[in-house]
Amino acid sequence: MGERRPADDSSGDDRTDRAVVGALLRFVLAVVLIGTLALGTAMFAPTVLEDLGIDSDEFEIPNDVDTGPFPPPSSEPPPAGERNPAVTDPADPGESTVQTDVETVDSATVEDFVHAEVNDRRADHDLAPLEWDGTVASVARAHSSDMADREYFDHVTPDGEEPMDRFTAVDDYCRAYGENIAQTWIDRPVGEPGTDDTVRYQTAEALATGLVDQWMNSTPHRQAILEEGTVPAWDRGGVGVYLTDDGTVYATHNFCVEW
Question: 91 φ, ψ to 5°?
Fold first, then answer.
């Protein structure tokens, strides 16, 4: 990535302004690096620079800040399962994409990686893998899209619909149903889950790992994945990811126990 410079850098005053902004950027980066990631029950996203009042298009990246090399592109994900089930949510938006300097990040690939990563974490705790359910994934994807479109972040919609309500409106074969949701950003510096560092997700594979790390670093979400406490023994699940044009990521992972 190249330097970003203000539109007019010809005057001494402008050079002074850039120096001040550069110093402010270094301070902000220090704050981000030492800050801890606050995790809510619905997995609110890590802080980005813009949330701190700094517009990334208005400052110059100082020469002594190492932005690091680009990560390698995503590997080929293991296919999660059926993507065109007989029953789908009418509000399912389908695939969404965001372009980074490394690859085109598409929601379907992120979903495949999340499903595989969740099953890997379950295997680490001697749990059977979840079977991919295309209908459950479609309901999850519709919820992610709805949160983005109506600008809310919750298990309950502004209309009062809860996870089980959303599923039974589409089909009715789950006797128990659970949901994890998360929000983050593509191609922006965000807090890395479980550490005091920052990370920039530029690939589908890295984004998927980051989403699962968010859930695993939050007690109620980890319990849902690992069936701890009063959580039932899930037998299937589906992941629904929606990517907005500005790189905002909404992810919903739903769990199901069939009748």
Answer: -95, 5
Q: Which fold has domain 97-257?
A: Pathogenesis-related Protein p14a (3.40.33)
- Per-residue exposure over 24-62, b if at least 16 CB sit within 10 Å of its own CB, e if not: ebeebbeebeeeebebeebbbbbbbbeeeebeeeebbbe
Residue 26: which residues within 8 A CB-CB, separation 6 or more? 62, 65
Phi, psi of 9 (to 5 degrees): -120, 30
Task: Name the residue with tokens 């409106």.
Answer: 169
In angstroms, the Cα distances linking 99 to 102, 225, 244 are 8, 30, 11
Give the type of residue at 209: T
Q: Is the pLDDT of residue 43 over 70?
A: no
Greater confidence (49 vs 179) lies with 179
Residues β-bridged to residue 257: 176
- What is the reported pLDDT for 68? 60
Band (83; pLDDT cuts 50, 70, 90): confident
Question: Coil, helix or strand for 90?
Answer: coil
- Sorted by sequence, the CB contacts under 8 Å of residue 171 that are 6+ apart come out as 87, 135
| pTM score of the predicted model | 0.75
Length of the chain as a residue count: 259
